[in-house]
Design brief:
Blueprint: H1 3-34, H2 42-45, E1 56-59, E2 76-84, H3 95-102, E3 121-127, E4 152-164, H4 171-178, E5 187-197, E6 201-210, E7 212-217, E8 220-225, E9 236-237, E10 241-243, E11 246-256, E12 262-269, E13 279-281
Antiparallel strand pairs: 1-4, 2-4, 2-5, 3-4, 5-11, 5-13, 6-9, 6-10, 6-12, 7-8, 7-11
Length: about 280
């Protein structure tokens, strides 16, 4: 083995090691910027084979109320099994597209200002999944020729109550855990939680999502995160809103294409402090 080849080999190995270290550092840096700590090690989070229960605790309707975590993030949600929306890319996530798709009523009562019944199901007519999984139209690999799928399919979707083990809700892991086809891409996610207050509160909703999302509080649209984006804590913030004494319904809809999907949110007081004096339930 000549000296030049040894030098090239050593440089290649060093480059690979630096790349792995930088990826892990990037994950940890994202967490640090959000002011949070992972409950699961970042290198394990990157593992596509991690089981569903590494991310979520499945609850029943009698679960005791929760509180925000130490950084104020809301970890308790009711999640509907995702609706098919097999986009071949993320460039379609324009303002008008997001508004049309995330405010479309797929089932009766979808936008009612009420919490869903845990374990209940809804019937949805959605676009048929496209053959090839993540490789929509060749993304992520050569797509094999497949028989044409029907334009639409009927889905029976169930509401799940979960506590996230992370500050953010890993929607792609939820999808892979509840769908028979294990698909996590090209989907619309619907999430609802109930915020309980002892008194009226003037607050700001701060949220992040991957990719686009719309957020409602007590039936009023308060925040939209457009376009293809990474999830960053406090990526967008609403104007002043009122959390009323008693129950408040917070609803989110998130759409992804051939890529990751997650979300997070918390509330801020007018003085900039994080809201913690609330409880969180699923009903």
């Amino acid at each position: 083995m000549n000296r030049n080849f040894k030098s090239i080999l050593a440089f290649s190995v060093l480059a690979v090691l630096c790349s792995c270290a930088s990826k892990k550092a990037a994950v940890e840096e994202d967490a640090a910027q959000a002011g949070v700590q992972y409950d699961v090690a970042p290198d394990r989070i990157a593992n596509r084979n991690v089981e569903y229960d590494q991310y979520f605790v499945e609850l029943d309707e009698n679960a005791a109320p929760a509180t925000p975590d130490e950084k104020g993030f809301i970890r308790r949600w009711s999640l509907l099994e995702p609706i098919n929306k097999p986009n071949s890319g993320n460039t379609v996530f324009t303002d008008s597209y997001i508004l049309a798709e995330l405010t479309k009523e797929y089932f009766p009562g979808q936008f009612a200002n009420a919490a869903p019944v845990i374990g209940s199901t809804v019937e949805v007519e959605s676009e048929a999944p496209r053959a090839g999984g993540r490789g929509f139209g060749g993304f992520g690999g050569q797509q094999q020729a497949q028989p044409a799928a029907p334009a639409t399919v009927k889905q029976t979707l169930k509401w799940h109550a979960i506590d996230s083990k992370l500050f953010n809700i890993k929607l792609i892991r939820f999808a892979k855990g509840v769908r028979e086809d294990k698909n996590g891409y090209g989907l619309i996610f619907n999430a609802v939680t109930v915020i309980n207050c002892d008194q009226d509160m003037t607050v700001f909703l701060a949220a992040g999502s991957n990719a686009s999302s719309i957020w409602w509080v007590n039936g009023e649209k308060v925040l939209t995160l457009q376009a293809d984006r990474r999830m960053v804590a406090d990526d967008g913030m609403s104007q002043r809103i009122t959390l009323k004494k008693g129950k408040n319904i917070v609803r989110a809809a998130v759409i992804n294409g051939p890529g990751m999907s997650d979300m997070c949110c918390r509330f801020y007081n007018e003085d900039g402090s994080i809201v913690k004096n609330i409880t969180i339930t699923n009903k």
